[in-house]
Every structure is written in C-alpha cells, then in structure tokens.
Amino acid sequence: MLKRFFILCSGSDTDILADSANGEQNKYAGIGATVFFTAVMAFVAASYALYTVFDTYFTAIFFGLLWGILIFNLDRFIVSTIKKKDNFLDELLQASPRIILAIIIAIVISKPLELKIFEKEIDRVLLEQKNDLTLANQEQIATQFTPAMAATDAEIVSLKKEISDKETEVNSLYETYIAEAEGRKGTELVGKGPVYKEKREKHDAMLTELATLKRINSAKISDLETQKTALTEQYDDQVNTSQPIIDNFDGLMARVTALNELPWLPSFFIFLLFLAIETSPIFAKLLSPKGEYDFKLEDREGEIKTWVTQKANQRKILLETDHTINDRVYGDISEEDELYEYKKKIARELMQKQQDAFYKRQTGIL
Known about the structure:
Transmembrane segments: 28-51, 57-74, 268-287
Distance between the termini: 101 Å
InterPro entries: DUF4407
Strand content: under 5%
Structural class: mainly alpha
Radius of gyration: 51 Å
Mean pLDDT: 77
Coiled coil: 149-176
Number of domains: 3
Organism: Aquimarina addita
Protein name: DUF4407 domain-containing protein
Largest sheet: none
C-alpha cells in the first residue's frame, strides 16, 4: 500500500510499472518518497513562517497545507516530465529548467526552517535591534521636547539668579549698616547715628523688595515646574505609546533580516541540504540508466505517435483524393450538351423576364 502510494507520488505511469520488475518499482517508489517528504517539509516550513505573520495556528496550518500541496504538485510535475534520452547532454538540457525551479523551491523551503533552527540566535539579534530602536525612539521624541524643556530650565535659573542677586545686595547693605554701627567703615564712629539709620532704612526697603521678589518669582518658578512636569508626562506618554510598536518588531521580515546578520555558513549548509533533497529525484532519473519502465514508456509513446501520424497522413490523402475526384466529375459534366442546352434555355427565360419588367417600368413613368 505504501509502495503504491509512493509510486503515485513519483508521477510515473502505474499501469506500466505494474508490469515492470520489482527493482524498477522500488526505484520510482524511492523517487516518490523523496517528493512526498519534501512536500511535508515544505508544509512545516510554510506553517512556521505564516505563524510568525498571523500568530494563529489554524491560519498557519491551513495555508501551510496549501503550500505543501503546491510544492508536492510542482515536484511531481518536475520528476514526471523528465524523459530518458540516448544522449546525457540532451537529458541535462531538458532537465535544466526543472533544476532551476528546484533550486528556487529549495530556497523557499529552507529559509523558514532556518528561522526556526536559529530562533534563539535570531531572538538575541532582535533584542539588540529593539534596544537600539528604543534608544533611537527616545532620542527622536526628546528632540521635540528638548527646546521647551531647555527654555523652561533657563527661565527658572534666571528667576533664581534674580533672587540670589537680590539677596547678595541685601546682605551687602546689612554688612554696611552693621559696620557703620561698629565703627569699622563709613564714619568710623561707634553707635547708631544718622548715617546708620539711613543705611538701615535702605537695607529694610531692599529687604522688603527681596520678600516681594521671592513671592513673585516663587510663583513663576512653581508654574514653570508645572509646565516642565507636563512636558515630561507628554514625553513619557509618547514613549509608552510607541514602545509596543518596537516590542512587536519580530515579524517575518525582521527575522529574515536578523538571520542575515548571523554567520552565513550554517545557513548555507542547511540550504545545500534542502537543495540536495529537492534535486535528488531529478538527478536520480538523469544518472540512472534506461530501465524497463523507460523502454516500455518510450514504446507506448512511439506507438501513439505513429498512430497519430498515420491518421494525419490518411486524412491528408483522403482530402487530396477527394479534390482530384471532384475536378474530374465537374470536368466531365461541363462537356455534356444536354446540360448546356438546359442552362441556355434558363438564361433565355431570365433575360425575357428582365426585358418585360423594364418595359413595364418605363411605360409607367411615361
């Protein structure tokens, strides 16, 4: 049962193989088994690749099954259309388009399986890429808020500096009137004289201005800090909104790109493995000598070709004979006097009727 199934997969003529030797049947059963298991691997590879796209098992398995059936049909067609010839170069030339197609199929099949085999290494590369994308995204978003944040910080620093300068000026006035009272500067008279009172009043006025400035600038600084906090929240919101897009950066194209960043040699050997599997039925037919099946198939095709050619020649001869007979028949008829007199009588009657009709029409006009 299994042998018959694999023979069916090989695309060979089961009726001819049924009358062939057991070794011939085993050869085509092996070719059919290769075709079948290649389709199975194509199904697995396509299902995994589509799962990375759709994230659902049902969809991935359904379309993977369709892809496996397509690859099975292509491989079966490729193997079944290769015919054994007497010249190996003719066979190779005949098989060259099939070999190119087999190489394309091997690439398509091997790539998803490479993604699965090197999944851990690809995840590491994707993690590095995601981290780079996260940092680049944060820097890009930060450029939108940096000017406003810098302007706010500069304004806060300016307001604080204004208070600091005012405090320095007040402290300087305080030191002045204290030194006046102690006799260290100014009039150098110990005691609280008129000059002391004047400097004390100036200090007190400046101290009042400092208190007012602190109250006004503190309110402004508080508003600026609120604006700064709002900008920080907007920045965090944009980063959090865009981060899921970066976290989902693990689709099929991203994985293929990450695979290309890994060393090429392991992937190349996997591709060679699938290429060998995909082309093995073709080369098996090319390298194997003509067997019983090939001779029987060639005999049957030659028989059909001869029969079709014979029918075509018979139709051609029949047509030529019919033309010759028709020429002779009509030639003999044209020489008979009876047919001539009959046609002459008919022509005379036709001309008389035409003359009568013309006469009547002319009379009506007059």
